[in-house]
Amino acid sequence: MSETTDAKAAGRRGRRGGGRDARRAIRKSAAEVHKPFVIRKLKPFEIVDEAGLKIIEDNADTILEQVGVEIRDAPHAIERFVKAGAKADGNRVRFPKGMCREIIQKSAPAVYTQHARNPARNVQIGGDTTVFVPNYGSPFVHDLDNGRRYATLNDFENIVKLAYMSPHMHHSGGTVCEPVDIPVPLRHLDMVYSHLRYSDKPFMGSVTAGERAADSVEMARIGFGGDLADRTVMTSLINASSPLVWDATMLDAAEVYAKNNQACIITPFILAGAMSPATAAGVAAQSLAEVLVGIAFTQLVRPGAPAIFGSFASSMSMQSGAPTFGTPEPAIILYTVAALARRLGVPFRSGGSLTASKIPDAQAAYESASTLIPSMMGGVHFVLHAAGWLEGGLAVGYEKFILDCDQLGAMAKFADGLDLSPNGQAMEPLLNQPPGEHHLGTAHTLQNFETAFYRSETADNNSYEQWSDEGGLDAAKRANKIWKKQLANYEAPHLDEAIDEELKDFVARRKSEIDAGGE
Amino acid sequence: MSETTDAKAAGRRGRRGGGRDARRAIRKSAAEVHKPFVIRKLKPFEIVDEAGLKIIEDNADTILEQVGVEIRDAPHAIERFVKAGAKADGNRVRFPKGMCREIIQKSAPAVYTQHARNPARNVQIGGDTTVFVPNYGSPFVHDLDNGRRYATLNDFENIVKLAYMSPHMHHSGGTVCEPVDIPVPLRHLDMVYSHLRYSDKPFMGSVTAGERAADSVEMARIGFGGDLADRTVMTSLINASSPLVWDATMLDAAEVYAKNNQACIITPFILAGAMSPATAAGVAAQSLAEVLVGIAFTQLVRPGAPAIFGSFASSMSMQSGAPTFGTPEPAIILYTVAALARRLGVPFRSGGSLTASKIPDAQAAYESASTLIPSMMGGVHFVLHAAGWLEGGLAVGYEKFILDCDQLGAMAKFADGLDLSPNGQAMEPLLNQPPGEHHLGTAHTLQNFETAFYRSETADNNSYEQWSDEGGLDAAKRANKIWKKQLANYEAPHLDEAIDEELKDFVARRKSEIDAGGE
Fold this sequence. Notes:
The structure is a homodimer.
Chain A: H1 2-13, H2 19-27, E1 38-39, H3 50-66, E2 69-72, H4 75-83, E3 87-89, E4 92-94, H5 99-107, E5 112-114, E6 123-125, E7 129-132, E8 140-143, E9 147-150, H6 153-165, H7 184-198, H8 210-223, E10 235-240, E11 245-247, H9 248-259, E12 263-271, H10 280-301, E13 307-310, E14 312-316, E15 323-324, H11 328-344, E16 348-349, H12 362-377, E17 382-383, E18 389-390, E19 395-397, H13 398-414, H14 422-425, H15 427-432, H16 443-452, H17 464-469, H18 475-489, H19 497-515
Parallel strand pairs in A: 2-11, 7-17, 8-19, 10-12, 12-13, 12-14, 13-16
Antiparallel strand pairs in A: 1-7, 2-4, 3-4, 5-6, 8-9, 14-15, 18-19
């Protein structure tokens, strides 16, 4: 994993020289130090034993052998599978037991580096790391001032900027919200441009059509200075149409990315009881079956192309059939499927800060924490929707984004685990301080005070009286002030002017081509 | 563990006969079924390996040998320790390595049953169970209508009633809030009476003085029908005065309870960086040292008396020195100390739904979940403060209580883990439903729908439009309606009239004795 070492070295070098930045860096508190990703010092929590995992793997194999998957409007994909040993009956493709696993284990990387425009922000995906990635795909935005409304490109840019500024967010994400003021066929151009212009963190490409994926690759090539060769600079979201269907749109996008050595997150999106049986072990077996086919496809397109095992599973309200989040069942599924991904030997994506709440209230926080904590303890590598989610993903919230980012910082600290160094054991003060004598003033406490405890950016720990005197604001109202201040202080990262011009030219040219029906 | 089997059998019998109750029971949804405690099917999460735990145990032994503890105003306690092999130098008592552990492992039970007035509600404490217990010790209460104010006996009774009615709360608790309208020397009488009169769940006795503990034992004797003999009917909270001090008040109360075979929770209450060094491993070693002394004391008083290893550790705001909650460090401590308790072989108490927030907002929920989830995943047996906590314990919130109880229900469901029964594996629908065909109408889904997913009592999973049409209430406002409805529907459990009279007589007599200075 020399790539990781490179990323760390780059991190030490810092991203820009100059006295002003250096002085600013020194002023930053410990909590604000930017780390490119979390390195987990904890073993993942195992919810089921090896024998149980083997049962689920066998079930997935049985599903692929007996039922198979339907591959819609993509004869070229069917051809690839048949050549590799599958049997096709029209669109239905069945796989001999073990076939997909074997293809994957021959070439899919267990760990890869996604390069960022700023090399200090390269992320290692896989192994003992966790990468936090913003909300994805919401048509609406929510904030306390304007309530809920359709998202615009301006909102998109704002979320990209807030993600860029958060020391706890490692990635710029993809469709952080849908800029619905831009026509669908043009949208991807503005989104990719925003990620390249307003952030220097890694990002995700468009997947809504093969040619939009190709545009994403081309813009990344320009943004990264013309050389992608063997660098992975995008990780993009390829969803199955559960149950057991892969459609042409997603397979086309996956093909473009895999061909270009860009990463795909192969994700069954499952509302349990609708797109799968209602039980956790059933969801796990079906998810594994769908992912085996999707990742095998990327390896048939280009052996060694990076691919992530994705899982998105929610439970359901028995009253209305609406999806529910932060409930126990998706956590059980997450822990189970994470272990399946480890056994398959590829990175894993799941979790986030998910909620069905419409606002950043107690429901939103309970549910988000109940998804985020399993994300960390389950050893998820790529945590999409790590901040901002509201309303089952229909909206991204500005205040929710700020509150969630704070939790990400806490998770990163938790991942450090127990420090058993001599300083951590603290035997010096324990043996020298007599009973009844407090430790506030000891040399050990003074030495550890700054870094001993995670410093929340949004919590109010003051007395009731002080909190009340300061307006008695709830967490959401405090977060409202924070995001406004952050956007007011935003400074764009460096982007070479020539590159910026080239990107703008590309966007303008493609927009006119697409408007002319030439896509 | 035949006691558990008895408790389960009693649970099946139901607590009252009669057609009306039976019909009501049938109407209850699956979510409302009352289970006396959680049986965890998951292994606890281990944050540190055996070698690491051994280091901490050695450190605790070294502290006890070299520094020892101070035992204040309790020469009889010092005498007991010296007789058992300790060395006293005035109030300072030092212990040979391994002495306390040996005393504890000879007689302290790994598992005990705390009996409830209603045998169906007996709780097993220790082993693979978790018992949820209400908030403890708050002088203030908070609700949305009246804000924050001093607690009264009426509030105390209300919290006891709400705990009684929650299917997710297993215990009536102790000082669920401080009834400050009652003079301190009389308060314990009204509190114990409330637990016996308004609930039939197990409860905690008073610990603020030896004679108040004795009153608690006497009232329990009356409430349980005069026979405590070998039954443990109270579990009470005995706090160390960290660092490394045990005072007479707590030791006196512990002596009364242990003598009567009632259970003590021996708990260091540590604000890290003040009552201990600021590091997690330091807190763990000191906690272990203090607990070893406390539990050994109970075993010297009465070998075999039930005792719980308690741990309460919070981090600190670096700005103000105020305690902070739901941060990563206390979770790391919880997982570490839980493992130490398992190795010692006694039940463990820690965690809860802790927060520094003044109101039931997003901060309260994030922080509470970040304490409650570790409580479950760390295998905590006795979760004090499981519902209601606000403001670092200074207040108990009515809405917070309702919201937290809902989370307890979710935790209980999570503890069931992955169901790998044939029904759980769901291979029948997985092999029979063709790709692309949804599972909503399958026999398997219909058969599992009612119990497949935890049904939250407080979450709103409706569409934005429906939620908005219904008033756009946040979680706290919905909880406000719930607790009012619950209190309006409250029906007291059966209590024999003669017993009630005897209890009232005892309270009246003791009050006049105490008022006359005769306590």
